Every structure is written in structure tokens, then in C-alpha cells.
Predict the 3D structure of the following.
Amino acid sequence: MAKNLYIVRHAKAEQSFSKRDFDRILIDKGIERAQRVSNHLALQMQADSTTLCITSSAERAYQTAEIFIKAIKYPQIALIQENKLYEASYLDILKLINQVPPHINTLFIFGHNPGLSDFIEYVSNESIPLSTSQVVHLVLDDGIDFNSLSSNTTSLLNTIV
């Protein structure tokens, strides 16, 4: 069975000089767009027992993940928060994904640029500068699972903006 990887950049967040970048929250426009994109995605797929969702623990990424998991019917209690996704390089993201158990067929990563866009280019050879709330759906090549994911081992299936 083909493995699916969904990369999601957090929704539009407030610009604030009074709080840490890590603590910035989504603005209404960002929430609305994340709801629209996640509802569109939910028409194409629903979570099952072989789905795993991992989010940066930064507030705006976590809020975005909450919107998406509700749409795809993924249990909130199963959402994994990962500090390493905040300010992660593409190699940090790869190391995290390489630890995903083999029974997982669908993986969602919610995080930040530039790491996510760099990661997509590394694994798919596609240059996609992610906008906020954008979803990139990658399919792992035959014989590749998340443990063996590396450079140029996925294909771009589609993107939802």
C-alpha cells in the first residue's frame, strides 16, 4: 500500500511584538482559510487507524492542526506535539519522519517555513514555497516507507491552497 505524506503549513497568525513568536495565535482570516482547506481535504480522505498526525508545539501550528484533525476525524487525544518541529530544518523534519512506525500509512506534519518547503524540495525535487494553510500531498515511491524516506523518494500528488 502506498504511503501518503501531508505537509501542512500553519494558518495565518497574528503579528505581535508583545509575545514570543512561539506563542502567536491564529487570526480570524487564518482560521477561516484553515477550515476551508481542511474541509476540502476531508472530501478526499478521512483518518483511520493507520493515520498519524504530528504538529509543532508552537501555538499557531497546534491551532491549525486542531482545525484539520477535526475535519478529517482524527482523535485529538492522539495528536502528537513535537517541540523539534519549531524552527526545524528539512533534516530535522526528515529525522522525525524516519522514526514513524511502519504500520502508519498516512502521516500529517504541521509546521513552519522555511523548513517545510525545504523538506518538500528535498524529498520530491519539487520547489513549492508553502503559503499559510497550504497542504502538499506527497506519495512515497514504491518500496519506501517513512523509515527509509530520503532525498527524491516521493512524488507530488497535489496541493490544496
About this structure: Strands lie at 4-9, 51-56, 80-82, 106-111, 135-140, 154-160. The mean pLDDT is 97.
